[in-house]
Design a protein that fits this description.
The protein is built from four helices and no strands. By secondary structure, it is mainly alpha-helical. Helix 3 packs antiparallel against helix 4. The protein is elongated, with a radius of gyration of 17 Å. It is found in: Mitochondrion inner membrane.
């Protein structure tokens, strides 16, 4: 398969750039990037409800993205990343409360 054929297949894929199934998870990466930026924030300034929501969203939608047809790997990647970063932020928050 040539590069042009691969690009055309990607373009016409049911979860390709012509659909919301591509753009919604792509823009959701912004939340994950913001969560990475919050690693520099002191743990006492991290929002516990926000990080619970990010972690839960990541876990739930990661599972969902493997059950739909076709599997949306962009959705899986962003939500797995959200679950990991949210879980780490929760760990930081809980650990900071133990030492106070």
């Amino acid at each position: 398969m040539t590069v042009g054929q691969k690009l055309l297949a990607f373009w016409n894929h049911p979860a390709g750039p012509k659909t919301i199934h591509f753009w919604a998870p792509t823009f959701k990466w912004g939340i994950s990037i913001a969560n990475i930026a919050d690693l520099n924030r002191p743990a006492d300034r991290i929002s516990l409800p926000q990080q619970c929501a990010i972690t839960a969203t990541g876990v739930i939608w990661s599972r969902y993205s493997t059950q739909i047809t076709p599997v949306n790997y962009n959705l899986l990647a962003v939500n797995a990343f959200m679950a990991v970063t949210g879980g780490y932020q929760l760990f930081r928050k809980i650990r900071s409360h133990q030492y106070v």
